[in-house]
Amino acid sequence: MIELTLIGIGTGNPDHITMQAARAMNAADLILIPRKGEAKSDLVDLRRDICAQVVNAPVRIVEFDMPVRDAGGDYARGVHEWHDAIAAVWREQIALHLSEGGGLALLVWGDPSLYDSTLRIAERLTGVTVRVVAGITSIQALTAAHAIPLNPLAGSVTITTGRLLRAHGWPEGADTVVVMLDGGCAFETLDPAGIAIWWGAYLGMEHQALEAGLLVHAAPVIAARRAELRARHGWIMDVYLMRKEQNDG
User: Which of 12, 95, 162, 169 could form an S-S bond across to 46 if both were Cys, CB 3.0 to 4.6 Å?
Assistant: First the structure.
């Protein structure tokens, strides 16, 4: 039997590792680290650094090449096929390194429950029990970095993706919208009147970047800075929160 522990590691800052996460990493027999190509080598380095700082037990740490998602064609089908391919690689690594069973740990950015598919991929495996160690999400890191509350007083929060924001606009009835997985700048599709934005990239990392202000003024600044940062680092992970101005009459 394989016990798979999905460990939330926050946004790559070793200070985000909880004591529970550290115990889980040291209790594992094997930690798998995915490589996602040269452009995202920083992400591998961050996981290596976390392991170097946290793991002090005889845990095997093995790297593997992450399958690449086909970005063309039907989105949902492409994602399902990608998840199938990832699960197949996990099976291969388990057969190679844990043929007699044991504890496998995977380090998950943020928290495994929020816009992450690791749990869905794990469902494709048989003979595996799954345990989750909660992590700091990019949303928490964003609000902390800007020193703002997530929600307005007694107000609602909607968490969505850039793709859905672009397709459907501002979610109906939402006071605050948090946008994740935005491959572009979906906020540019909104009427900016009365909307404020708080944006962050590489949260918790050495090159963390922040911008905030009224969307009408901040949107072009964020778009330009985002493009410059992506060109400099070869990749970008960002998240933003938008809030409509409250009208108290």
Answer: 12
